[in-house]
Amino acid sequence: MTLIPIELTKNSISGEPECSPPSSFLQTPFWAEFKASYGWTPHYFKVTTTKSFFLSVLVKKVARIFSIAYIPMGPDIKELSPEHQGNFLELLAKELQAFLPTDTIYIRFDPPWGTEVLNNQTFTKETDIFPKKLVGNLIRSVAAVQPPDTLILDLSLDEEALLAQMKSKWRYNIRLGEKKGLQIDFLEGIEGIESGIDIFYRLYVETAARDGIAIHSRSYYEELLKRSSTWANSTWDKPLSVRIYVARHEGDELASIITLFCGEEAVYLYGASSNIKRNLMPAYSLQWQAIRDAQKFGCTRYDFYGIPPTDDPDHPMYGLYRFKTGFGGSIVHRVGSFDIPIKPLMYGLWSVLESLRGVWYKRVKKIFIRGIPRKS
């Protein structure tokens, strides 16, 4: 295995760029440069084994004491058999250490490896997916960074076939919106930045208060659109569009979603809704319009980006599972996040803090968020 650093700017690459482009938007320079606005330093590599692929590594300084390295949805190589995947991560981590800050305490991977099953099939995650046995220094992360379970639609199907695989109630709700005069528009670029963000964020704050979820500041979503506009015409990134879809009825803004179209991949990132006219089911019409637009953009798959691992009515996000899986498609179960500790003692302390942070955000903070009015 060899790693060659790549120096990358918006319109140029130096080094040896001849390698396959990333499959996931999380590995693109667009996403890495967006995360650079929030304390992460991107590092780019050409990795050569049996094939060459692009690798984006994000590094962050924590409390001016140590650094952590994170590889979202990478390494972007899918030809490995399950028994070789752990060894590959160890080898890659060993090669990467020479290019990382000396105070880096661990490297975290979110590999794209997983198992895909049809929506109506059952799946036992503990027995059907790598790794059954961890090798060497590989440790399962305290919590997955990217959602390991998701739902993906095959956009090579025509509209009739896409509708046919939905649950009947989902088709009814889409037709209901059309019948009641629900208007669906999207905003991108300057228009999205100047007016779309205001609409989305107002609805998102309302959603957060209602459902008890934590959200980023308004500037985070605005920066996302700004970066997408900058990199959309890059000579390196794939065709790119970040869009804010808005559902309106008789002048009322009822719901909004943010989607990302990147090459062959379309991703539903964020969703928000008002407390009024919920009987018009705007979320269904928003998704259907985004799905059709993704096809026109040239995307071959639509990723709903995160569902609970199983169809469990007791899961706190069961409603999300029902909503997304009702559109049909296939469920993908990925392996989740794994760490290679570089400084074991510091890594152990950090893992404890991560666990406590997870309890705070997932349990304690929700109690305080729910029902508290928030300013935008």
End-to-end Cα distance, whole Å, is 49 Å
Count of strand segments:
16
Topology as a string of helices (H) and strands (E): EEHEEEHEEHEEHHEHHEEEHEHEEH
Q: Low-confidence runs (pLDDT<50, min 5 residues)?
A: 364-376
**Helix and strand composition category:** alpha+beta
Radius of gyration of CA atoms, rounded to a whole number: 21 Å
Note the total helix count. Answer: 10
**How does the overall form come out from the CA principal axes?**
globular
Helix content: 25-40%
Major sheet size, sense and barrel closure: 8 strands, mixed
Strand % is 25-35%
Please tell me the overall pLDDT. 88
Strand order of the largest sheet: 2-1-3-4-5-6-16-8
What does it look like?
The protein is α+β, with helices and mostly antiparallel strands. It has helices spanning 29-36, 82-96, 125-128, 159-164, 168-179, 189-211, 218-231, 282-297, 318-325, 344-369; strands at 2-9, 12-14, 40-48, 52-62, 66-71, 104-109, 114-118, 139-140, 149-154, 183-187, 240-249, 252-262, 265-273, 301-303, 330-334, 338-341. The strands form 2 sheets. Strands 2-1-3-4-5-6-16-8 form an 8-stranded mixed beta sheet, with helices on both faces. An 8-stranded mixed beta sheet has the order 7-15-9-14-13-12-11-10, with helices on both faces. Strand 13 (265-273), helix 8 and strand 14 form a beta-alpha-beta unit. The radius of gyration is 21 Å and the shape is globular. Mean pLDDT is 88; it is low at 364-376.
Give a quick summary of the entry.
This protein is an alpha+beta fold and about 375 residues long.
